[in-house]
Structure formats: C-alpha cells, structure tokens
Amino acid sequence: MKMITAEDTIGNILNNYPELYEVFWESGFNYDSADQLVSSLGKDTMLRTVLTVKDINIDLFINMINRRINNECQMEGLQYDFYNPDLPVNLLVKTACAVSEHFKEELTQTLKARRELTGEMPNVFIVDGCHAPHDFQNFHDIESVDKLPDIIMSMSFDEVYDKRFIDKYVSQGYFTSVLDPKQENLPECMDDSYTLNAGLAMVFLVDEKKLGDLPRPEKWEDLLNPIYENSIIAFGDDSKGIFEYPLYYFYKEFGMESMKKLAHNVKNIQHAAKAARLAGTNSKEAGAIYYMPLTFAQLCENKDVSIVFPEDGALIIPIAFLVKKDKVDELDYLIDLLLSGYGQMCANINAAVFNPNIESKIPKGTRLKWLGWDYIRANDIPALGEKLHDEFHKVWDEKQHKEV
Fold first, then answer.
1. Phi, psi of 209 (to 5 degrees)
2. What spatial distance separates the first Cα and last Cα of the chain, rounded to whole Å?
3. Whole-structure pTM over 0.85, yes or no?
4. With 70 as the cut, is the pLDDT of residue 227 above it?
5. Angstrom distances, CA of residue 12 to CA of 18, 45, 52, 143
6. To 10 degrees, the CA torsion angle through 264, 32, 386, 372?
C-alpha cells in the first residue's frame, strides 16, 4: 500500500481515504465534512503546507494517518487499546480533541518506557472523544471506590462534576490534587481533590465592520444588552444546540433571566471552528460578536476582526483530572505525563495552564474567571446544564420558528 507523504495533496488524500477526515478533525481542522475541509483548504494544497500553517508536527501527523489507513494504531508492538476489562483501570483517558492523537502518541511512549523499565503495563481505558459514551459513564453508580479508575481525566463540566459522584466519592477524601495550591495565576482554581490542569479560555471575537456604531462588548454582562439583538454567534453546534459551559457563568451571576436575554441576542449557534472561519466575512451566517475559546479565536485571520479579552475575565472550561490519594506514588509517571506533557499540549492550543512549570501562551495580565469549587459542590452541574440548555432553547427555538 502506498504511504501518504507530506507532498500529497489534501484532495487526493481525502478522496482516496475519506475516513481520514476524523484524524484531521481531531487535530484541529474542525470542518463539518471532508468535502468542506477540501474546499476550504484547497484540493491541490500539499499536506506539508496545511500542517506548517497549523504548526502541527509533520512527521507525527503523517505517521498517525498512515497507521490509521493500515488499521494499526500501534507503535513498536504497542496498541492504543491498552484496556483489559478483567483488571482494575489505572488511567481513564479523556482529552481535548485538538490534542487527542498527540496525547495518545505520548502515552504510548510513556507506557513503552514503563514496560521496558519494570515489565509492567498499566491498564488504560481511552474514551473515544471528549463527550463520547463509555463504560464508566455514570461514576456515581459504581459500587466502591476500588472499582473507579485510579486516575480519571476530565474534559469540560462532565460526569465528575455530578453531585452524586461528588457526595459519594470526592467529598469523602478519596482523591487529592497534585498541583501546588499556592498559584499566583488564579488561586481560586486550586482544590484539595480536583487537579485543574488547564482550561480553555472563553473570549469575544468582534467583527468591527458588522458591529458598526454599536459599542464593543467589554464584559460578559454586555452580551445580555438588548442593543445586541441578533448580533451574537453563540458557541455550540447544529446537533446539540448551545453549549452549556458559559451558561453556568451567566446563571451564577445574572440568574435564569439571562438565558432569555442571551437567546434574544443570539443570531446563530455555531461550532467555534466554523465561527472563526466566518467571522469577518460577508456570509449571511456571520455575526458581529462571537464568544468562543481562545484556541479557535486565534485561528481567525480575517480583516477587521478583533479578539477581546473580557474585563471581568475569560471564562474557564476546565481540563482537570482526579487521582486517588493512595495511588499518587505508584502512578507518579502517569501524573507527570498529565501535568507536564499534556499540560504543555494544552498550552500549545492557547489554553490557560495552571502548572507553574509551563509557560502560558495567553497574554500576560489576562484576567481569568473560574466558576468556583464551592459553587460546583453546591450544585449538580450536569443537571443544571441541562436545565439552562432547555431554558435558553425555549426562547431560541420559538424565535427561530417565528422567523421561518
């Protein structure tokens, strides 16, 4: 079988291997389809060119897609499926999509080194996508702490923020943070149980031309001002609707009425990758104001578009993990991979990082806003998210029906 090289064109690659669209998507090329990806990047554009522009390691990416073609996600005899259902799980992997494949590569190298050093192979369960269903979906239903993975990686406000899980396991002191709690960056982010490794930072992206004479939004409450009616592109996607992450912050500070106010001002709901492409264009789908993670906002290179860091802080979408207290010494090599290796990967996609040994790429002086551990423990976050999603869509869906 012919191997793909850096000189192959995007059109030829995806025409011959449409299944590779998922690899491109996981690596940050967040287009809605393979056809859209080819159309946007150019069918005759060489792979080397698009990887260089995105600052993606060329050799690593090419090795990854060639293994995917050959249906061999392996490196020197080690497979990405390290899971034995008959053994206790040492690490449950859930990562930010943009660094998923890179992390798996680093994990493979770490496990290979561990096997060569000790002859041991940790039991690792990899969740296929940050929001994908998996065997440990309902942690609160697991009958004992011994049945839980020793390290649980988390992405966004997911099931480890379920109050039933918190009350049953987290509040009982089974887990410990492995970061120094004395953080100058954002001390309130530190917790005794959760290790907040990093966080996607939500900012504004403003199309100055479309904004016209309206004032720039400077803080989150501004997005609720009726002067921005039908001017805002909200963070979400076509199938799920609006994403709940920023809604928690709106609700905490401005109450349930903020769902209605935001819905009136939202023109459209788009995934951040699509929104970053449309911002500054003449598309009917474009808006004047967008809110999205800085990871995507910095991909927009269109004229007259500005990134605005809210005065009251960029909202944090957590990238955290939990470690059992009695496993810290035994699994120190995996913890180091999460803190250093994965932490650096998060920094490289412009996430805020809380490991003092990793330099953040977010501009110095940027203010961050964290939901708060006391607030998280006092509320059932996933259940609250469903309620906020529904309240927003009551108004939004009715507005869309009237417009049709």
1. -65, -45
2. 51
3. no
4. yes
5. 10, 10, 18, 51
6. -90
